[in-house]
User: Which sequence fits this backbone?
């Protein structure tokens, strides 16, 4: 019998449609994998076997009735625990929301489940998505299935780890400054941030509303396109979701890259602190594109070097405003012995928020304060405009841009947790895309010391299709085996 946990979403749906196996069997295989690996990996804050079983039964009833199956029928899915799903808690991995029950469904989650996916559970994250390692979770870190002593990246570390480990076939994460792509790189998964506005943010707890975007983790580029098909498109509940037509992102995936103009972002490759093996892997990937018929050349995005600084002003500014609602009254943990309302606010928040959340709220409040607004927030917005312009100029000559996803492979748990600046540097290549609203996908492009290396492909606004076509061509060419050590040991 085939190992159902290793199949792609497309294979699962087709196998169920052909009655090779049932959705129930797929769910059972996913939870068997959870039983074997979750005690070590700890990707989930909550498991949802009853919801998965209900969803699987619906699919199996459709098969029995001879109905046409939806595109993600029977596909086990992890959901980042900052997205609401009725019947689950939405904790954001924070003590302040530890008991919060979802009151409604996040649109992207609803669409994923309507497309037939089986919800396996809610995935661990850095508290409120602040972080790059999942160590900022109030419920403990998630571990990287490639090496359990290392981080899976973050903030969507649980979503990345569950897909890498085969506990889910696909998952949803959110990406404000790299939180899908960076953990994707560190766990050897395909991890996409769509164009800002492509996917509704409704029901995903806001971090920085002008930067946040939901997207998929998968084990293949085709699956990434399939999930995007399911979740993309206008939603009346999110005014920033756009009416732009949604193409079938799987169409043309196999058309290759002949004549495609691919730009290597050279000034990013020269950045100090980039591991030499990662630079070499990215250059090797670029050479493969050339061999496959693309026109490959160097391009610079000079303003991107201001990205990290601008992001650590704009991100915390928006976060400090978004997190004001967690005050013990409207939402969240409340002390029960407050002497007055101010005491209630202050102590509920001090007890509920972890150190990184407190740091972001303080940074954000500071840069928005009357005396500093222009010097910090105003300047950061100007830098953001320059970044948007540099990318627009590059896309006059190129169809897809390439950078590393991260400066390093997965680091050890604890290695950077006391040094916020070192941690922030993890996202130096991913953040400029959020500032510019551009789509990006991280895909495995090789290994360094046995750990996955990620390549970031960047597309034009709303041209995820071309970006994914390039990714699919490279994926087929490299044909890497992305089975992590924990999964190999299960099979041995
Ligand atoms: N790691 C970045 C941060 O800490 C990005 C987080 C994210 O994309 N949610 O802000």
Assistant:
């Amino acid at each position: 019998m085939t190992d159902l946990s290793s199949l792609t979403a497309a294979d699962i749906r087709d196998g169920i449609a052909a009655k090779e196996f049932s959705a129930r069997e797929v769910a059972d295989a996913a939870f068997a994998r959870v039983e074997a690996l979750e005690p070590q990996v700890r990707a989930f804050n909550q498991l949802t076997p009853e919801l998965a079983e209900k969803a699987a039964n619906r699919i199996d009833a459709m098969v029995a009735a001879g109905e046409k199956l939806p595109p993600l029928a029977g596909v086990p899915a992890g959901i980042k625990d900052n997205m609401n799903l009725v019947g689950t808690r939405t904790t954001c991995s924070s003590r302040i929301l530890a008991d919060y029950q979802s009151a409604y469904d996040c649109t992207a989650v609803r669409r994923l489940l309507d497309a037939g996916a089986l919800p396996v559970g809610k995935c661990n994250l850095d508290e409120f998505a602040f972080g790059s390692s999942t160590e900022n979770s109030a419920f403990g870190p998630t571990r990287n299935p490639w090496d359990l002593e290392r981080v899976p990246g973050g903030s969507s570390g649980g979503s990345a780890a569950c897909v890498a480990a085969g506990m889910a076939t696909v998952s949803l994460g959110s990406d404000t400054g790299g939180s899908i792509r960076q953990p994707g790189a560190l766990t050897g998964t395909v991890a996409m941030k769509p164009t800002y506005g492509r996917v509704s943010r409704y029901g995903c707890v806001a971090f920085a509303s002008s930067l946040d975007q939901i997207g998929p983790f998968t084990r293949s580029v085709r699956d990434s396109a399939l999930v995007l098909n399911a979740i993309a498109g206008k939603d009346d509940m999110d005014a920033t979701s756009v009416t732009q037509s949604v193409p079938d992102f799987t169409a043309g995936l196999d058309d290759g890259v002949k004549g495609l103009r691919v730009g290597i972002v050279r000034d990013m490759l020269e950045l100090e602190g980039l591991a030499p093996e990662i630079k070499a892997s990215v250059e090797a990937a670029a050479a493969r594109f050339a061999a496959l018929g693309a026109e490959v050349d160097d391009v610079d995005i000079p303003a991107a070097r201001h990205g990290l600084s601008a992001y650590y002003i704009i991100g915390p500014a928006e976060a400090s405003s978004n997190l004001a609602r967690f005050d013990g009254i409207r939402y969240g943990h409340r002390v029960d012995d407050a002497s007055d309302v101010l005491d209630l606010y202050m102590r509920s928040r001090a007890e509920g928020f972890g150190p990184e959340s407190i740091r972001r709220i303080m940074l954000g409040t500071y840069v928005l304060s009357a005396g500093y607004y222009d010097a910090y927030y105003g300047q950061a917005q100007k830098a953001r405009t320059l970044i948007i312009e540099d990318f627009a100029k590059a896309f006059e000559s190129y169809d897809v841009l390439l950078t590393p996803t991260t400066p390093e492979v997965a680091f050890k748990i604890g290695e950077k947790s006391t040094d916020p600046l070192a941690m922030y540097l993890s996202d130096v290549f991913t953040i400029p895309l959020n500032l510019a609203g551009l789509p990006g996908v991280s895909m495995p492009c090789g290994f360094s010391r046995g750990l996955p290396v990620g390549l970031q492909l960047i597309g034009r606004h709303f041209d995820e299709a071309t970006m994914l076509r390039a990714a699919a061509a490279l994926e087929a060419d490299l044909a890497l085996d992305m089975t992590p050590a924990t999964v190999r040991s299960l099979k041995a």
